[in-house]
Amino acid sequence: MATLLAKIQIHPGKEAEFEDVMAFMYRQTHDTETGVMRYEYWRGHEPGFYYCLLSFVDNLTFWRHQASDHHEGEMQRFAACIAALDLELVDPVSESSPLPAAAEQDVPADEPEAVREQQALYPLSLEQWWLLLRGKA
């Protein structure tokens, strides 16, 4: 399982363009990808701040999403809107979320190079304190 929370700061005046890109990404992700459990965008309290909740059945599915044609195809417009991005792997608290716990995973040898590049850009590692609370450390 891979659940991530992104806090995204947009350049002033780019909000409408960002929302247009995100609407496209939302539709494409839900219409063309498998293994997507959550993929949603939210406006934050502070002007120009957004959040994205992404949840995939596993890390590989997240990396495939990142390498997808629609994600890569919109990267230039996406990047032109963003002033700052903080992407964080999160772990659901037991019995407080319907989503499964985060897990580590490697990219299989037969995956395309683009997926391997996404793994290098976005390594997803479990935090030791999570494992202690799960009783697995």
Summarize the structure.
The protein contains six helices and four strands, in the order βαββαααβαα.
What does this structure look like?
The protein is an alpha+beta fold. The protein has one domain: Alpha-Beta Plaits, CATH 3.30.70. It is built from 6 helices and 4 strands; from the N terminus they run βαββαααβαα. It has a 4-stranded antiparallel beta sheet. It is globular. The two termini are 19 Å apart. The mean pLDDT is 93.
Topology:
Blueprint: E1 2-10, H1 15-32, E2 36-43, E3 49-56, H2 59-67, H3 69-73, H4 75-81, E4 82-90, H5 113-121, H6 128-134
Antiparallel strand pairs: 1-3, 1-4, 2-3
Main β-sheet, in a few words?
Answer: 4 strands, antiparallel
Task: Write down how many β-strands occur, each being a DSSP E stretch of 2 or more residues.
Answer: 4
Helix content: 40-55%
Name of the top-level CATH class: Alpha Beta
CATH topology: the name is Alpha-Beta Plaits
**Structural class per helix/strand content?**
alpha+beta
- Compressed to H and E, one letter per element, the order equals EHEEHHHEHH
Pick out the low-confidence regions.
none
Q: Write down the overall geometry.
A: globular
Known CATH architecture: 2-Layer Sandwich
Distance between the termini: 19 Å
Number of domains: 1
> Which strand order do you get reading across the main beta sheet?
2-3-1-4
Mean pLDDT: 93
Strand content: 15-25%
Counted by DSSP, the helix tally is 6
> What integer value in Å does the Rg equal?
15 Å
